[in-house]
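Notes from the 1:1 (GR / supervisor)

We went over the backlog. Supervisor wanted to see one worked example end to end before approving the batch request, so GR pasted a single chain during the call. The sequence is below; no edits were made to it. Supervisor asked that the structure be written out right there so they could see what the output format looks like.
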Amino acid sequence: MKKTDTQMGAIYAGFSYFIWGLLPIYWKLLDHVNAMEILANRIFWSFIFMLIVLFFTKKWGLFVHTLKGFAKNKKQMYALAIASFIISGNWFIYIWAVNSGHMIEASLGYYINPLVSILLGMIVLKEKLTFYQYGSFILAAIGVLVITISHGTFPWIAISLALTFASYGLAKKLINVDSAVGLTLETLIISPIAAIYMIFLLVNGSSSVLTASLGTDLLLMGAGVATAVPLLYFAKGAQKIPLSLLGFLQYIAPTLTLLLGVFVYQEHFTKTQLLAFLFIWSALTIYSLSKTKLLPEKGFKLRKEKRATL
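Structure output shown during the call:
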């Protein structure tokens, strides 16, 4: 891989995470709209936008071919349907959390996400964890425990976001399709439900589309672009850079969201939350370093083997 390819890949991926980190600003502009209605518009207009993208990128033939393939392969079709519902649930929780003043906890969810992915890989794909990955998971669990004990409630927003996005990633790993085609198919499955809900709101006179303001209409329609663009840049960047670099870049998004929650939207960041975040940041640091092979994993194993022979 050329150095310029790696540099461009890092720019693409970094840009996608930068957009994701700033998306709460977009959802805050729509905080006067019900979260479910925002979600329905996000799904429907994402589908419309992706159809346009497929047309201009000349991937329409690939889309039709993939669609026919899924019709024959029921397991793949079911997996795609599950992935569609999972990511829709993730989007709803995130939009609701941001517009309900839980931006800090939402950022916590995406910090935890890589570690939940490790756990799912171990349980579902039977992947073996390294010593450092076990340590990362334990530290993150302590961080979640700190929040739970201090607040007396389980941080369900953070855990739900982490679980749904990690599960979505697992489902995508099992479905090997072009990123643009995959996103189009995912939104295709949910779009009829979203469209029915949007029509229902319009008929009942409770829709924000065509009734609130032109600005609201444009923002709801633009949700499709705001959803699809970072996903497309992410897919483009992920193909060009090592997984270890991608692992470091992914923390851009929750960090920006955390900063927005604390400094822009004035959400209360307690000392207990700081302690919990310190545990999770430590876990992520260890996990990231283990992916770059900077930590002496082999050396640890060797010392362990020597002790066993004594």
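Supervisor's comment: The radius of gyration is 21 Å.
Batch request approved.
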